């Protein structure tokens, strides 16, 4: 680990543990995420502490993925940490995409406010499942766009759009005659109407997850991100690293949950000794250490591949499956070790369990990634047979 990343990670850890964690029981943390007032307050404190958007350097450069891994892990030590430090989804992934694909004018207009922590963003890709729209299979996209003079006109419906409520920057995916396209839009816009914010198992992300109707949205042609028909390629530019970033942040959350469960097990007495001395409990904590270390190593390996410029969907799929499933086991054991205390809101353990359960689904559920890997196995086998 580089000295600069270690120094940044140390500052982020101190800030999240010392400043952010006390806000975890703040009444402004609601069922659809922390309120905008709380987000602004936490970001002001992060800005003052010099840890706002810490993975992006003052000159506009980006930490390597291996460096980012340790920094985002520290930001994840509290469910509020990524929000405070501006390393949360979907903003972190959207910033990465804009940095890779956006024009200089687009970066100045849409990326700069995100990096500065003055705006939140939303990524409009997923569509209502029961209407046959795009989900894990983006080729099913029903939202359409057509060129009308020097504007594109977009119509469709989107679902599970994280942070749409309160976002100022939107990236909208739609299908033209050329294929998938991406557009940058200012929010709010009267043509993008939030129908409702869903009640979901997780609640760490501001704005929650919304169902959105897009009706006659007019976007200037120069706000298309990249080229018409290249949207799926750009989606992979965003989604492969974004899956890994989720792993980084939630690893931090599970490390903290395990710390809380360990402290409980070493203090709580039952049947004549502290819980950790009972094999049934001690072994669960030992298994947690194993899963946490394996998750850390998988993230580090995948980040190294990405830094080498050769990260594909297979590597990010393996990391998403391995890490999300390992962290689910960790979160579940933490709840079990703490018993009744583990299912109460007195600590973040209960929330971490809920968040990790949702993590196993978003950015592609485990089963879809395994299916994708199985297809690659078959494809690679056929190539060896014809070689």
UniProtKB/TrEMBL annotation:
Keyword Cell wall biogenesis/degradation (UniProt): no
A GO MF label: flavin adenine dinucleotide binding
Lineage summary: Bacteria, Pseudomonadati, Pseudomonadota, Alphaproteobacteria, Hyphomicrobiales
Pfam families, alphabetized: Acyl-CoA_dh_1, Acyl-CoA_dh_M, Acyl-CoA_dh_N
Residue span, Acyl-CoA oxidase/dehydrogenase middle domain: 122-200
GO-annotated cellular components: cytoplasm
SUPFAM superfamilies given in the database record: Acyl-CoA dehydrogenase C-terminal domain-like, Acyl-CoA dehydrogenase NM domain-like
Cofactors, names only: FAD
Top-level lineage group: Bacteria
Record organism: Phreatobacter stygius
Lipid metabolism keyword on record: no
Family to which this protein belongs: Belongs to the acyl-CoA dehydrogenase family.
The protein's name: Acyl-CoA dehydrogenase
Keywords, sorted A to Z: FAD, Flavoprotein, Oxidoreductase
Residue span, Acyl-CoA dehydrogenase/oxidase C-terminal domain: 229-376
């Amino acid at each position: 680990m580089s000295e600069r990343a270690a120094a940044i990670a140390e500052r982020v850890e101190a800030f999240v543990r010392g400043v952010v964690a006390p806000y975890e029981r703040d009444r402004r943390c609601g069922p659809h995420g922390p309120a905008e007032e709380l987000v602004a307050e936490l970001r002001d404190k992060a800005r003052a502490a010099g840890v706002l958007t810490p993975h992006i350097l003052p000159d506009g450069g980006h930490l390597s993925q291996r460096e980012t891994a340790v920094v985002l892990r520290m930001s994840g030590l509290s469910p509020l940490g990524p929000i405070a430090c501006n390393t949360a989804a979907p903003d972190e992934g959207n910033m990465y995409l804009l940095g890779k694909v956006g024009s200089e004018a687009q970066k100045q207009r849409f990326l700069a406010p995100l990096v500065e922590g003055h705006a939140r963003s939303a990524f409009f890709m997923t569509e209502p499942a029961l209407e046959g729209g795009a989900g894990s299979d983006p080729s099913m996209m029903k939202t359409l766009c057509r060129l009308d003079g020097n504007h594109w006109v977009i119509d469709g419906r989107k679902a599970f759009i994280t942070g749409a409520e309160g976002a100022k920057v939107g990236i909208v995916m739609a299908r033209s005659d050329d294929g998938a396209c991406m557009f940058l839009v200012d929010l709010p816009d009267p043509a993008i109407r939030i129908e409702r914010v869903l009640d979901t198992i997780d609640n760490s992300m501001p704005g929650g997850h919304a169902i959105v109707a897009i009706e006659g949205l007019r976007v200037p042609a120069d706000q298309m991100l990249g080229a018409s028909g290249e949207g799926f390629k750009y989606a992979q530019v965003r989604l492969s690293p974004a899956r890994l970033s989720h792993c980084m942040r939630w690893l931090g959350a599970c490390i903290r949950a395990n710390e809380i469960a360990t402290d409980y097990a070493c203090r709580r007495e039952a049947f004549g000794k502290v819980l950790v001395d009972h094999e049934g409990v001690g072994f669960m904590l030992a298994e947690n250490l194993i899963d946490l270390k394996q998750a850390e190593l998988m993230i580090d390996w995948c980040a190294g591949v990405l830094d080498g410029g050769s990260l594909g969907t297979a590597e990010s799929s393996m990391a998403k499956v391995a890490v999300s499933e390992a962290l689910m086991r960790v979160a579940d054991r933490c709840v079990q070790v703490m018993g009744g205390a583990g299912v109460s809101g007195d600590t973040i353990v209960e929330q971490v369990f809920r968040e990790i359960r949702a993590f196993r689904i978003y950015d592609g559920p485990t089963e879809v990634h395994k299916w994708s890997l199985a297809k690659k196995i078959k494809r690679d086998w056929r190539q060896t047979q014809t070689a």
